[in-house]
Amino acid sequence: MKIPTFIITIFIISFIASVFADDYLANEYSSTVLKVPNMADLSAVDDDLSYSLYHESCPDVEGIIYRKVKEWVTKDPTLAPSLLRLQYHDCVVRGCDASILLDHEGSERSSNMSKSLRGFEVIDDIKAEIEKKCPKTVSCADILTTAARDATVLVGGPYWMIPFGRKDGRVSLAKEATIVPKGSESVTNLIEFFQSKGLNVLDLVVLSGAHTIGRTTCESVQHRLYDYKGTKGPDPSLNPKYLNYLRRKCRWASETVSLDGETPNTFDTQYYHNLKKSMGILSTDQLLYSDSRTKPVANGLSFESSLFKNQFGVSMVKLSSILDLTSQDEGEIRGDCKYVNH
Predict the structure, then answer these.
(1) Do residues 294 and 205 make contact, with C-beta atoms less than 8 angstroms apart?
(2) Per-residue model confidence as pLDDT tens digits over 281-296
(3) What digits encode the pLDDT tens for the residues 166-200?
(4) Distant-in-sequence contacts of 7-10, Cβ < 8 A, 24+ apart
(5) How many other β-carbons are positioned within 10 Å of the β-carbon of residue 249?
(6) Residue 105: Cβ-neighbour burial (10 angstroms; 0-12, 13-18, 19+)
(7) Active-site residue (options: 55, 89, 211, 342)
(8) Is 217 helix (H, G, I), strand (E, B) or coil?
(9) Are 209 and 312 in contact (CB under 8 A)?
(10) CA nearest 92: which of 161, 177, 210?
(11) Which of 137, 169, 238, 322 is geometrically suited to a Cys-Cys bond with 97, CB 3.0 to 4.6 A?
């Protein structure tokens, strides 16, 4: 039986209220009533950002970006999740300042944590086209943020409005990219990391839902298949049939496998249903369904696609509004996203 949207919404609201009591690890629930935010709540996400910034200086900027992203994703649908991941890696390190795009020795892009990132050529193509129409006007950081949104839309995900005004940072350090959580992080570490970025448990569970599309390297999951925590055996929490499937797909660490084995090319709630069936491919994914702080949210989101998609847009606006003060004060509008201006 399908549970009505309002019941799921009330359930998630109650849960989030309890999570953000003074001690979010406590078992006692707070009586504070919090609402699931919507786009109206984010109308003034940051004083440095504006929804109307390019209305006069580059009125077709979003059209240019959408057409280019569509061109690339049509040719290669795997670029959609890659652009989402590229934005995530950018925003959680130094804020959304396009530091991940800088291509020099010792940059974030050169880090081992970034070796599987893709989509750089898409951003370069968009930037070149925008420079023809609106030179020295649109930052690479704004382009990346918008491209990630449009890529999501093109694979069936939600649309959300994006405030503009991010500056391109001039600093990018490989060692700083190591803060990006790995696929084997504990839920506690993930919660603490997200909170350090101004995000919450709901954002964590919702943004993890981006794993409904895309692929991961077999290297990141082989420990669960063959030597879980030094046992010389598989992770006992893995669905046995799914374990066999992954072992066939991941004979070599260099191979890749879909994050969502059921509907890998569609932005939907299947990710959460997979968790229920012990088919979360990354440890961090499956743990969301076994931890009491995150399981109720993951379970609730699985019932209502519209609720998940609406909240995904809200959480992405919050993610894309993480700014680094130094980058904003001393940043620039790069002419080429790979290099700082000279």
Answers:
(1) yes
(2) 999 999 999 999 999 9
(3) 999 999 999 999 999 988 899 999 999 999 999 99
(4) 8/300, 8/301, 8/303, 8/304, 8/307, 9/36, 9/307
(5) 17
(6) exposed
(7) 89
(8) strand
(9) yes
(10) 177
(11) 169
Identify whether 342 is a catalytic site residue.
no
- The residue written with tokens 């004979």 in the block is 251
Measured CA to CA, the distance from residue 98 to residue 171 in angstroms comes to: 10
Q: Which amino acid is at 22?
A: D
Q: How many CB atoms lie within 10 A of CB 279?
A: 22
E strands, the chain, are 215-217, 256-258
Instruction: Provide the sign of the torsion angle of the four alpha carbons 83, 86, 88, 90, taken in this order.
Output: negative
Write the secondary structure of the chain as one string of H (helix), E (strand) and C (coil).
Answer: CCCCHHHHHHHHHHHHHHHCCCCCCCCCCCCCCCCCCCHHHHCCCCCCCECCCCCCCCCCHHHHHHHHHHHHHHHCCCHHHHHHHHHHHHHCCCCCCCHHHCCCCCCHHHCHHHCCCCCHHHHHHHHHHHHHHCCCCCCHHHHHHHHHHHHHHHCCCCCCCCCECCCECCCCCHHHHHHCCCCCCCHHHHHHHHHHCCCCHHHHHHHHHHHHCCEEEHHHCHHHHHCHHHCCCCCCCCCHHHHHHHHHHCCCCCCEEECCCCCCCCCCCHHHHHHHCCCCCCHHHHHCCCCCCCHHHHHHHHHCHHHHHHHHHHHHHHHHCCCCHHHHHHCECCCECCECCC
| Residue pair 217/256 in contact by the 8 Å Cβ criterion | yes
**Tokens describing residue 38:** 């919507």
- Supply the angle between the helices 79-91 and 120-133 in degrees, to the nearest 10: 80
Q: Which residues of the chain have pLDDT under 50?
A: 1-44
